[in-house]
Design a protein that fits this description.
Blueprint lengths: L8 E8 L5 E8 L3 E3 L8 E3 L7 E8 L4 E5 L5 E7 L1 E6 L4 E4 L4 E5 L12 E6 L4 E8 L13
Parallel strand pairs: 1-10
Antiparallel strand pairs: 1-2, 3-4, 5-12, 6-11, 7-10, 7-12, 8-9, 8-11
Length: 149
């Protein structure tokens, strides 16, 4: 299959800039290759990340849940399975995400400003937000928005 047919997959990147302020912007995974995942398996589009140790957590955020200002505990992929949630970064950007949306949380090493450090998050609407969180044992980057493209 021609590379021109390669898909892209949008994601939000919550990151720390050079001044220690958390920000977020939308980027896309674009390094897809058309290949099988094993011998004899039909090819599919895959964008493989660098190998690392990872821990998977399934989370259910209750209706009305608010995670006051905090940093992600480690760089982590968050995929919303059902419900909705929001993430507000120190720069004032607020993004709401729902089922099928993807975020990479990497706002470690922020510097407190006006009572804010990291990000604020919470559920939106009248149903819990379920998600799968894959925390990576990697060193967080600073000022590398959209590091996965």
């Amino acid at each position: 299959m021609p590379e021109s047919d390669a898909p892209s997959m949008p994601y939000w990147h919550v990151y720390t800039d050079a001044e220690g302020v958390s920000r977020q912007a939308r980027f896309a995974l674009t390094a897809f290759q058309f290949q099988g995942v094993g011998p004899g398996v039909a090819p599919q589009w895959n964008d493989k990340m660098d190998p690392s140790q990872a821990g998977v957590t399934f989370s259910v955020l209750p209706v009305g849940w608010v995670g006051e200002w905090h940093e992600n505990p480690k760089p982590q992929w968050i995929a919303v399975l059902s419900g909705r949630w929001f993430v507000e970064t120190m720069d004032g950007t607020r993004v709401e995400m729902g089922p099928g949306e993807l975020m990479f949380g990497e706002d470690q090493n922020t510097k407190p400003r006006d009572g804010r450090k990291g990000h604020l998050s919470g559920t939106v609407g009248d149903e819990p937000c379920t998600m799968i969180v894959t925390g990576l044992d990697v060193t967080p980057t600073v000022n590398q928005p959209g590091r996965f493209r």
